[in-house]
């Protein structure tokens, strides 16, 4: 049982990120002093939305410059904090050198933050943003899991540097976090493992996320002839931020938490948008057949290898989210609300 004093500052790494921005907003709303660690506090385009939040909310905000790959870079920001949220990590599938662009930042960054927690006596709890990608690689893994669904006990054993390196990076980074946490007994570790995060971005023009790319593909006509039933979980960014907050301040929070609201696929996402946006945008109406994807997929998108299509298309994705609901009281937004509000931001900001 770890009791966190809300009068002490709280550190958020990668504070201007997609999930982290909502978390910072929540902390400020609760009147908490936030130490926001970002790569470049001088870049106003990337932090202005947080400055505006701080002006509107009772909490305080202080920026710190910190680089994931620099040892000790987070020490100044961590001093005096009992609670650390480590959210900073690369999320992209378009990489030339996965070792350099994904594995090293994810693993070394995690090690840097947690080793610093070992040096800063005030720290009592670290909440790390992991991913369902540390539990599975392909939808077929969820079908093959005990009971036919993902649980917190399962670890990803099918990703590698050559196949799905993003999932591999998240697995290695979370394993590193648990290794460091288990080697000491002053602070405890909690991990949040979201599936695909959708929902409105607080800073849409600066949010470089696969989530926005997927919405652009759905609304931009890439899938107007049909969308693949590509099995995946979906969760709202605001629910993920709340999950972090509750993981930080619930004394009995422990271990890993699958943070996924809906078992879904690309076609379902497109169909959820059709009632409101179907007249304006070339949203998909039907599924693209798997055999056709096997033929053209590898030509259209290098991620759509035959192995990937075989393991994910027309394969249901299932995860058990009962732990986070029962232990932290997280309640998830309806699927349609998440889809529509994500999409509307892209329209409002002329991204679509």
UniProtKB/TrEMBL annotation:
All residue ranges annotated as the NAD-dependent epimerase/dehydratase domain in the record: 10-248
Record the organism.
Persicobacter diffluens
Q: Which CDD domains match?
A: AR_SDR_e (cd05227)
Its keywords, alphabetically, are: Oxidoreductase
What InterPro entries does its record include?
Epimerase_deHydtase, NAD(P)-bd_dom_sf, NAD(P)_dehydrat-like
Name the record gives this protein: Dihydroflavonol-4-reductase
Question: What SUPFAM superfamilies does this protein's entry cite?
Answer: NAD(P)-binding Rossmann-fold domains (SSF51735)
Short name of any one Pfam family annotated for the protein? Epimerase
Molecular function (GO) terms for this protein are:
oxidoreductase activity, acting on the CH-OH group of donors, NAD or NADP as acceptor
Superkingdom of this protein's organism:
Bacteria
